[in-house]
Fold each of these.
Amino acid sequence: MVVIMKAKSSEEDIEHVAEKIRKMGLKPHISRGIERTVIGAIGDESLLNIEQLEAIRAVDKVIPVMKPYKLVSREFRPENTIIQIGNVSVGGDKVAVIAGPCSVESREQLMATAREVKKAGATLLRGGAFKPRTSPYSFQGLGEEGLKLLAEARDATGLPIVTEVMEPGQVALVARYADVLQIGARNMQNYPLLKAVGKIHKPVLLKRGLSATLQELLMSAEYIMSEGNHHVILCERGIRTFCEFSRNTLDLNIVPAAKKETHLPIFCDPSHGTGKYDLVCPMAKAAVACGADGLIIEVHNNPEEASSDGDQSLTPKNFAKLMHDLEPVAKAVGRRL
Amino acid sequence: MVVIMKAKSSEEDIEHVAEKIRKMGLKPHISRGIERTVIGAIGDESLLNIEQLEAIRAVDKVIPVMKPYKLVSREFRPENTIIQIGNVSVGGDKVAVIAGPCSVESREQLMATAREVKKAGATLLRGGAFKPRTSPYSFQGLGEEGLKLLAEARDATGLPIVTEVMEPGQVALVARYADVLQIGARNMQNYPLLKAVGKIHKPVLLKRGLSATLQELLMSAEYIMSEGNHHVILCERGIRTFCEFSRNTLDLNIVPAAKKETHLPIFCDPSHGTGKYDLVCPMAKAAVACGADGLIIEVHNNPEEASSDGDQSLTPKNFAKLMHDLEPVAKAVGRRL
Amino acid sequence: MVVIMKAKSSEEDIEHVAEKIRKMGLKPHISRGIERTVIGAIGDESLLNIEQLEAIRAVDKVIPVMKPYKLVSREFRPENTIIQIGNVSVGGDKVAVIAGPCSVESREQLMATAREVKKAGATLLRGGAFKPRTSPYSFQGLGEEGLKLLAEARDATGLPIVTEVMEPGQVALVARYADVLQIGARNMQNYPLLKAVGKIHKPVLLKRGLSATLQELLMSAEYIMSEGNHHVILCERGIRTFCEFSRNTLDLNIVPAAKKETHLPIFCDPSHGTGKYDLVCPMAKAAVACGADGLIIEVHNNPEEASSDGDQSLTPKNFAKLMHDLEPVAKAVGRRL
Amino acid sequence: MVVIMKAKSSEEDIEHVAEKIRKMGLKPHISRGIERTVIGAIGDESLLNIEQLEAIRAVDKVIPVMKPYKLVSREFRPENTIIQIGNVSVGGDKVAVIAGPCSVESREQLMATAREVKKAGATLLRGGAFKPRTSPYSFQGLGEEGLKLLAEARDATGLPIVTEVMEPGQVALVARYADVLQIGARNMQNYPLLKAVGKIHKPVLLKRGLSATLQELLMSAEYIMSEGNHHVILCERGIRTFCEFSRNTLDLNIVPAAKKETHLPIFCDPSHGTGKYDLVCPMAKAAVACGADGLIIEVHNNPEEASSDGDQSLTPKNFAKLMHDLEPVAKAVGRRL
């Protein structure tokens, strides 16, 4: 860690910071520049309380040298984490494709969509039973009934199922049915929920918050892993910007950036990342081209009747075409579908 | 609601939308322009499923005419909501000032700070017992022990207490001690938590999320109110932008904008909204000048020893000066402290 | 255009708006809803002054139905614009690659880099002679001397040259040497400059501003085209967001979105879009995968000695590898390098 | 300056950086931590080429310790700069108020508005003669004719005039008429224009770009000052964010932040900063409360007939009320109107 003192700090100020560093168990290393003094702290940075150093009024800024995360980092585990979900491997050569409706609405809707996405080559089935909706007056999902339908669809198609969990008290119930538990973007920093899914033994798909940094995303993964569950899949789903032509801005820069920092797999969700069905296919290809380990695609057998997100849902026919078009892109970057 | 069709939509497309609107129970009203057709829907807009209309491929966009919120709106309740907390009235002439440490750390720290802020004129005491921290390795708060200390500080000073609740399962516990329950920025769209605090009878301080729109903030308040708890205080605490000179960007535009839309009181938190102790005072004055009903100010008896947020905490001396300087500003806009 | 009146507008207010629309030469079409009145304007929307309608205090909002741009739009020209630059075609099957150093620094540097990028398969050469630098104390470019060196490099390699022009008074000079004139991101809304390059007969590469919307980018292209120069290439180069892991956020959503709206070619600049040399290759592939018509890549024969942007510059060796890896991606989406 | 090396850098890497620092004329100071090595550079930081150090692949990041600006900084000039414009002093006790229409449209419009704002207490008159408009088809201003009308209005009212200049070739002409030259937000980084206004002897009002940082704003002021013109007034006019309830987000945090960094006066423009006439008054008060040295307010004698920005323009009556309401706020913070 490096402390940059304000210009014109006194010897007393400098010694005060040095003493504080010593008390925290590290060794201060003082560089007196012409205009500013810089103090390095040599030792185990995890012992430092950075906020306390920042609070010293003579300190201009504190620059951490160590990463605040451990278990998620490439240093901790240099090789890629590969997660096994039924007979699907995530994080290896194969690009996984999670497909299905935004919400589970009925047996007919789910079964029809599930069969279609299976036929087109999807590797996992998604569908929301508990839905985080902006309005209390919108459809909130079928709840456990939805989970049961998902399990039925898994039995019928063999596709493992991915579904969202919204609160700590729901984790046990959702884990009883789901193969992968999804933490939605709005809950990326719902720490009690992260701790709760950290205690189970099923993979977690952790979506990036609308205005989360990479470091915050990794810290949220660290929360899960620090409770014992190391099966975390990261997911970029679009950030909020001023852009008017898409619902969100799919930030693909994060894919190669995450690959440098962490061993965890990272997926992309071009459905939420664009909000427009006709941008989904090009952005799905882009995601695979820059190294995404998987995709999540909203597919509805009849988007106009979808109870949510119809505007960004592909029809089964569009989805089949996407799968067909994705294959050569995956191959071009040394992967396969 | 107004549906704008894509250019070159066919008569069939137009009729399809019209029929859909009829099925939802409204009357379509078609305006054929030179290049585009626009279809209005006359009737009770709450019957419409906007997402289903957007999902129609021939539709360019759908523009809601009605607000999606009801209970929070000025139309529903034209006069300002005034909330009584002990002997403090919030939302009226008097500007409320909530002050105290970021975290409750010890009896000594809390009592010392509580007495100082009381003396300087604060109207409520804040302090975190359950702390949402970015890192699982940071201090997570004293938990119930912290709540007990807060209750003790209330007994000693007479100041009602405000503290954060992080999950539905904690609501009953926190409500046993607190006078006002705070929902933090990261939980603004934690819907199970919003529903849970909607079922109790204590005021809720709802902080705006880091990238939440005004409409989303109001919809979150609507969640709480729709469960029966009408005592909601909104709070602006800074949004995330590219700005490098402050931790967040305190968005004061939202204060007068919210006043137009809703009858609920709105507070500002210049401590989180700037992240720098020396920007807190000017921004506190600005907040009062543009109409904020209250402030939340982090105060610590020894910021350098604070376990969190020391860099943005005022000393008791700074806080006393702030209260002194605020008074004429409040008066200048027809309010008082 | 659709005018949404405020709730409780009077008959007088409605008639006032209707009269205003009539005076502008269109026909008002009034839909009285239960809570709001909506007024459509039938006729040639370009006659309307939207700002004047918005300024009417009884108007809640005005929603334009027509696009504000003409010459750039797909409606105006349904087929893709193909621009010929020497023997290079831009906007067709072939993905163009502009490569070269951020700044022209010396004959040796430019020639060495130019030969390398030519050998690796670049189709155009870039290099800055007039440099927009944040600091007045930074290297501002070699000026005309740099343009001469670029012309020399073109003679030596056969690559057409792309270079930035910063002010109207420089256009004639730069056009004497350059094959393509670049308008930098900071000048996207420098209207006198746009008009000036609109009067010449050389292609213009128009970079998107740091916080420009798609509509604003297209309006800036419209400025150039409305002066007579229809050879405009759009370029996404990253927007400014809160993201900390890359210098900018490369917004690839804009590529397929622009393809829907306009017939103009669109390029991507992953060097500025990421700011990190090791993110350039994955993002270049992503750009091609989602439909970009070309790329701009900063290459320097010795990044550590570059007078600007070394951190995001590829070495010639990295660039050769990029060209090699891009080829199958281009093929996978039906293009070629 | 502090260089943080990547983890596992070799001795050779470290020596390479140290040698580079020596060659630039400074002394390296190496701190070997447990996981990382940090190298300080002792000496005159202005000799360093930071980009070249960043380009070294073994370097993780480079943290400048010195500010990149000189003439604008508080260190260079500790006392506030006070700028004399006719008999108006800017930057002292008195809060200046620039008022007038967005565009000069006609003699009648300008004279009527000028007389009203003078009567209400404005200290300077604004009006655009050269207008930067998003669309090439919008009204572009009256040009020199507008400048003549402004001069006439000055003669009639005694108010000094502020008007925008859009390109270097216009500076001499505009300076012939105007008392203060305005650089618009879109031109904040139009460096040839900054240099051109740096060479004249009239005050410059420099508006912050839509997504400019404080440092970038100060660097643009430095461009002007480095050419010899030290009479620069900074102006916050709203940044672009995701917020939907105002046209821009007026970032008042920058006012006290700028006051720490620079001796230059800073104004606020709540008209552009909100885009809504009914948010202008509260935000004008907030700006004064947090320390703004002046305001710019759009006033039009008939907003519904304004050729631009009518929606954010005050009527003369609203403006008179604003001036009346501002007075006690200014007094509350030790200023006067």
Amino acid sequence: METLLQYINILGTFAFAISGALIAMKKKLDPFGVLILAFTTAVGGGTIRDMLIEKRTAFWLVEPEYLYVIAAGTLFAILFRKKLTYLRKTIMLFDSAGLGLFTIAGVEIALQHGFGFVSCIVLGTITGSFGGVIRDIFANEVPVIFRKEIYATVTVLGGICYLLLRKAGFDFILVQLVPILMIIVMRVLAVYYKWSLPIIFVKEDEDSEDE
Amino acid sequence: METLLQYINILGTFAFAISGALIAMKKKLDPFGVLILAFTTAVGGGTIRDMLIEKRTAFWLVEPEYLYVIAAGTLFAILFRKKLTYLRKTIMLFDSAGLGLFTIAGVEIALQHGFGFVSCIVLGTITGSFGGVIRDIFANEVPVIFRKEIYATVTVLGGICYLLLRKAGFDFILVQLVPILMIIVMRVLAVYYKWSLPIIFVKEDEDSEDE
Amino acid sequence: METLLQYINILGTFAFAISGALIAMKKKLDPFGVLILAFTTAVGGGTIRDMLIEKRTAFWLVEPEYLYVIAAGTLFAILFRKKLTYLRKTIMLFDSAGLGLFTIAGVEIALQHGFGFVSCIVLGTITGSFGGVIRDIFANEVPVIFRKEIYATVTVLGGICYLLLRKAGFDFILVQLVPILMIIVMRVLAVYYKWSLPIIFVKEDEDSEDE
């Protein structure tokens, strides 16, 4: 079981790295820029989580295996950049798996530090989705998760599910697997059926300019 | 007195959340993006402050009340988005109150960690104004505080005033209230009279391109 | 020797501050924005390094001398903004010196915290080059180091050289000076001969949109 989760973790990191590398190549960054975007996409969320908590060093500094996986993901994305269109669905599946696992890992770490319900959910969401936020900021775009695909909504629901199951005292494997699968399934359905939240906006001249 | 400051703190968080939510709606983010922008605007400055200092966990992880205030501010901004034009002045007042309180809170925390005069001022400015910086970066714009309204200048002057009054040994209430009011008044006047610093710039072809 | 390194460090901070101030003036920021961009460019890399490691406070909070150097660099850039075209080469030299010293300082600090080879290199690169990344994000541009000039590549090579020389047990002065000089020389040559990595990209319609 532990091994299964570790495999998912590695695949998630790999998929996040590919996602960062692809955006970097679209933006015509040089190979080093591609590597850095792959790196920040894959570790960004967990790194911010570790920065927010007093007694934590960024996880990839003490577990450099992640850096190898990212290097491999970057190389893979560069070599197969033309074929990745056909692998789009496979990548999205890994990406969703990573999202699920990273989110739940973030919630669990928050719990271990004794934070409350809402703080745990927020840390889980940050862990799962802020790698993509940094990726988009480095690529000079408004982060995609703020705009579509109910990406963050899915992590919040998954995090709540995890906390409830854990409190209810279910079996550890169940407590972990159910919300991770739930995040994966919801994300895949959201992409497939193009689910998104309704957009509420204000027109330029309607809003307050004073801050 | 303590209670008064706490009220200002809550109102400031509320106003910062509204400010973030309004910009997010202008940028047509989805409701979750609106919430995240409200969140980062309200807690961003204090969070960076807490990250910069070795022994601090981000304040909102241990005081989740802030998260409820932010959720309320976001909901308020979404519901009353059309009427907020007329409330512009009220919001700006809260926002200025938040700016004043956050800045002085940042300076005080820096003092308690034993940092020097200049470091205290810098930490105060970061606490007061970097929430807005993150908000603008997430919205893919050059941060407004770098461009106009002497926003940051006001926090620097308020911070200096606080340190001087505190060193002079005045009454604690006075030491806190005077610089907070000073920041509020200067900010309101700056917005009202459109005060801004003169802009010094170099033309594209005049500058150094090499880094 | 210690003194020499300290001089380079100060000159590097000064040059990084000028680089940030110049970009800020190009972007027509107000003087406070110019100062903040100078500040983040100069201390950004080291600050992120200090945030990533559990037991570190941002270096400039405890060594405020850096803040004075940055203020001086900003003033210098504002006063001599028109003449800085002619000084372009001099500035680039300081900037490269700063890059070399900051990178090696980052690698050394990572070593002292017991991190592995790859983590040391990554921390060195972040220390040397992420100040420029933050500068460009604040200026709303895709970071230049992701696009050209083999900036980051140079820091990686310098970091590897440092770790190898140090392990080989060479004299401390040599271990420090050789990689710093190597970074300076490679960087200067890269700018002079316009070296850059080949760009590998994917066309918009070729890529995966799903994340």
Amino acid sequence: MTQRGALQVAVIGTGRMGADHVRRIHEVTSGARVTAVVDVDPERAKSAAAGIDGCTAYTEPAAAMAADDVDAVLIASPGPAHEAALLAALDQDLPVLCEKPLTPDAASALRVLEAEQKLGHRRVQVGFMRRYDTEYMKLKALLDSGQLGRPLMLHNRHRNVASPPGFTDAMLINDSVVHEMDVTRWLLGQEIAAVNVLRPRPSDHAAEDLADPQFAVFETDGGVLADVEIFVNCGFGYQVQAEAVCERGTARIGDGHALVTNAAARWGGTIAQDFVERFEDAYDRQVQSWVDATRRGEVTGPDVWDGYAAAAVCEAGVRAQSEGRRTEVELVRRPALYR
Amino acid sequence: MTQRGALQVAVIGTGRMGADHVRRIHEVTSGARVTAVVDVDPERAKSAAAGIDGCTAYTEPAAAMAADDVDAVLIASPGPAHEAALLAALDQDLPVLCEKPLTPDAASALRVLEAEQKLGHRRVQVGFMRRYDTEYMKLKALLDSGQLGRPLMLHNRHRNVASPPGFTDAMLINDSVVHEMDVTRWLLGQEIAAVNVLRPRPSDHAAEDLADPQFAVFETDGGVLADVEIFVNCGFGYQVQAEAVCERGTARIGDGHALVTNAAARWGGTIAQDFVERFEDAYDRQVQSWVDATRRGEVTGPDVWDGYAAAAVCEAGVRAQSEGRRTEVELVRRPALYR
Amino acid sequence: MTQRGALQVAVIGTGRMGADHVRRIHEVTSGARVTAVVDVDPERAKSAAAGIDGCTAYTEPAAAMAADDVDAVLIASPGPAHEAALLAALDQDLPVLCEKPLTPDAASALRVLEAEQKLGHRRVQVGFMRRYDTEYMKLKALLDSGQLGRPLMLHNRHRNVASPPGFTDAMLINDSVVHEMDVTRWLLGQEIAAVNVLRPRPSDHAAEDLADPQFAVFETDGGVLADVEIFVNCGFGYQVQAEAVCERGTARIGDGHALVTNAAARWGGTIAQDFVERFEDAYDRQVQSWVDATRRGEVTGPDVWDGYAAAAVCEAGVRAQSEGRRTEVELVRRPALYR
Amino acid sequence: MTQRGALQVAVIGTGRMGADHVRRIHEVTSGARVTAVVDVDPERAKSAAAGIDGCTAYTEPAAAMAADDVDAVLIASPGPAHEAALLAALDQDLPVLCEKPLTPDAASALRVLEAEQKLGHRRVQVGFMRRYDTEYMKLKALLDSGQLGRPLMLHNRHRNVASPPGFTDAMLINDSVVHEMDVTRWLLGQEIAAVNVLRPRPSDHAAEDLADPQFAVFETDGGVLADVEIFVNCGFGYQVQAEAVCERGTARIGDGHALVTNAAARWGGTIAQDFVERFEDAYDRQVQSWVDATRRGEVTGPDVWDGYAAAAVCEAGVRAQSEGRRTEVELVRRPALYR
């Protein structure tokens, strides 16, 4: 399916993430253009399509996918809508970039896994965009090089200024810690075998029904211990850090010390206030990489198995969190397609 | 001249920089494509055009500029060829991105300045790409914000692993320090009024006829003192740093501490080995910004006056260097077009 | 007991730590001198006393303590000998600085606690010297200031180049993690209520019967969660770091970035290779502080309760480690003398 | 003159520095005690002696030096009083630690140099205490090791929060930059051969008749170029930094990053507000080192030649500053005693 012209992309969902992807493909990405936008709200769809030549607004994903000028699909609708859109795209054998989560639970992720296996080749990439962050990429390259020896532990920090209203303990796992779950699996090339979630006395700045911060501990099937401080009301910034402890050394990312000032009796710098500032380049790189691979007729990046495994680890995490004990992760056998 | 389709670019010169720009526009830049490449060597031109649909190879810049499918020109030929190409493009009223230097000396830069004035509107952007580096952009924004008060001094470091054979004292100024000249003018919004160049006893690692490192001192018309350590055989890496000292604080960029390791009795990280690693994003951003502005019918970025002023400061710098004394910079009056 | 002359100190034990304390009091400490050294090995005692005017060698602690020219006692003998020496000193009502551990287990520590209570006033300081490290002191001051709000979590790293032969899993807790136990209690002003110890697959560089690294998790009675990476064969250096996560910010110590070099494609610095390099100043400050307080007739610094609590937490830690589960710490009620 | 008892020190001058030295020797220094204090103001002398057993107050340096219980002299009186005190001490053949400056000008320094030569052996140490700062010591050791190759340039920053009333341009050189003069000479083991002093437009926060900041450039007789940013009204802190640029790498000290916080959208730490906080350890180490050497019958540390050379470089610096041009330093031939 190698193609010379620009990749024609249908973007499904035009909320915050979807609208941002429309803008990205239109203004930033090389070799792609948005030819379709889909939203259940026809007005929102029309408004998203408005500024873009040759872009049609739809309310049904299937209609967009059936259009002649659609080569590929970017799914950015709410999580519960992913499964139907994914199955429709696989039915049409269309390349897909699906925002995380693949689907909201392991059972539905498994259905997508089975559909893709039935199709017989990979078509879906999942939007774990941290894999496209230059710092994580450097850390991964360093670990893969073997210079520091075998990884033994991974310390993660994940901090947000404040959580939105209605944010729950389960969302702390499913929406936030899920990134560290994927990063742990990807950096180490190992599956997470068990999860525990500990809670200190909560910060007074968290909503009353949210225990924030929490401390998750993963055990991988390769014997690595990964811990995650998740603190979504830290107040001071958006901060994502990781330190890998290996047999011969450690490596840390996320300090973010680009501009250093001296002023008013303090040295230091500013901290990013949201994920856009911290990971914008990773989002750009993710979509460019997906477009480039798709145009070459290839599928790269995190796949449906990664999406399924994350869903299964999240389920174990939420159970560990609510039952207050170490919980093992249950995974089906990894299909040959994803090895 | 606002346009909806992709910007059709002729790239003049297909050496290292030109070939890299061809690749960039083809693979990275959104909203542009290479429709013409020009090189005095017809084989090299053909080879540069080979992988790109709809791209024609030329040996004459004027021929490419006359083509129907050329909207804009990127000049990446050797410096001495710039003047003719710039005058031809201005003659055709075509938007230009011209790699630095604008031209090799102040007199020729002045001729380009006059040609653009005669045309009556700005068409030319000069490739001082550090202005598109995120760290320099943050430093500029901080200085412009006034938070730290008025700038008083600017300390710059500019280090290369090793200089190529044949690198001369004059090239140290014209090819290397010229970046700090532009950065100083841009960060401060002031002209450089005088230059001095001091030389310690040279490093044994420099070629015999090259005095390396050197230490340049600029005085601006706003009374700021800027110093530049230029060391093109430092051996350990490519490193560009700047610290602005203001009335209420200082700000420093260029530490480059993304990945920090502990290993073998040392903490720290790697240093970039060339400008591509350090400034690749700035090159990408520069071209994207030029394409975006051009498609909107605008001209932004460093202009012909900036190119002329850099040439005049370089001339003063080379004279200071060879005569061993503080040398004043001579500039014509700034034309209204560039105010 | 305020005194004007130099404090006359008997140092008990002249092994590595004892000999170092003799040197310290002789050469570094102001207002004190070594008038007695005690070692079961008479030759070693004599050799330790040799270079010091007016210093007598003993083989029995009690004999030294009974001497007229002994005002205070520094115990640096092996842990199992501490109880007897402490009880003898308390019997003589002599001020004591006792190297950690106070005693090897909670039961014996309790006997010392009771003896001191019976005496009716505090005489003993325990050698948890990290409390005298300037970085820990700054961290403590910052936490106590309330600027960052209430502490919620404490992340600790404790790394040694290599463990000595015969180092066991229990020693990992009793000799190494004990420092983080004390630091956690001291920084937070809270008792540790439960301990868990997790083990990743061990490093190949650890001795066969040692599981290294390990990961300890403390829960305090104030609801703070403290984790400790203990890695005694990290290979690259001696590194002690702590990050307190509070309601409004975090604070980290232990980066140790005094001298930063650029060389051979890397920026960074050296890492201390042992605790002497990292904590020498803390040892000096501890002894000076003890001498100054003793001369003023006061007792400051970590007390017998701190020594007892550390012993009790260690016992819980070793049990957690061997049984592989969270273990609660059992403490007697805190006597009024130590409130 | 090796001695076993405590060194009996007369402290001359009991202003801020002198009083601090009295306290230091009384409370911090091992092996020394203050037996005499001298001040032209008898009340101040008495008050300084008050808390110290066996300490006599004098108004005449010579009287203190003649006392039986005085072994050594620490001169901390105002600079103009140094020469007489130094000559009196040399007359008595007493070891001296003299606060910087040795004397206020090169001519008087030369007289002290001649007096010590006539005595035939060295007795005087000058209080350039940065040589006892651990960071400078590490930098010196690294340069001496030859690891980074030959030094080529030295970049220095010297910043104070605010200058006291009455601070003049000449004091900027004589009181502040004099430290960098000594540090440059000491780090490199070279003499300063010429000085230039440049001035940007002054900060609005400096007093009206003070041009602050300034930028000094030294050329050494070994061909090294050293520059100094001196900024005594920087507002944000007391900061002393140095970066040596060598043939194979660079080394920087003075970042001072012990405690790193994240709070209120910023990462970073506090900056020392005065030299006591930054250099207190260096002062302690300097005096201890002088006491130890003196008790061993040795003279170490910066000597009269260092004091004389600093005075000569200062004179050249003040001339360069007022005449606005590069000025050569004139030195007598170095006497054999100081080689």
